[in-house]
Design a protein that fits this description.
single chain, 131 residues, mainly beta, 1 helix, 56% strand, globular
């Protein structure tokens, strides 16, 4: 009986865990690793992403300038994978309407994306939650 009750508690705990409506919120790029080489965020501008339950928008923010939406898209989470499809890009993009798959993890206030781009670039990006 104790084992059945313990199993039930574990199942309830796992069932109650969910990543809400996805990655909802604002995230700011805080660096990454590209093909094994670390890259720090720029000191001249900030990149932010706003996620709701199904969509995201990337914003380029430069001091004393209006923020610029540089991309928008759709995303879907499945287990530890995030499937992103860019639907708008302010600049020509090879990945417009192409779905990219990343493994994602949230540690404390940091969203971590790991994946391989269609051009072969291996990425690990860090995005800090901002309020």
């Amino acid at each position: 009986m104790k084992k059945l009750f313990l199993s039930f508690l574990i199942l309830v705990g796992l069932a109650s865990f969910k990543v809400d409506g996805g990655l909802s919120g604002r995230w700011e790029y805080s660096g990454g690793i590209y093909n094994g080489k670390p890259a720090a965020p720029s000191t001249e501008y900030t990149l932010r992403r706003q996620y709701n339950a199904e969509h995201y928008a990337g914003t380029y923010i430069e001091k004393d300038a209006q923020p610029l939406t540089y991309e928008t898209g759709d995303y879907k989470l499945q287990l530890d994978s995030c499937f992103e499809t860019q639907t708008y890009s302010a600049q020509p993009s090879k990945w417009l309407n192409v779905t990219l798959r990343y493994h994602f993890n949230i540690r404390n206030d940091t969203l971590i994306f790991n994946g391989k781009l269609p051009n072969g670039t291996v990425v690990e990006e860090y995005w800090k939650r901002v309020h």
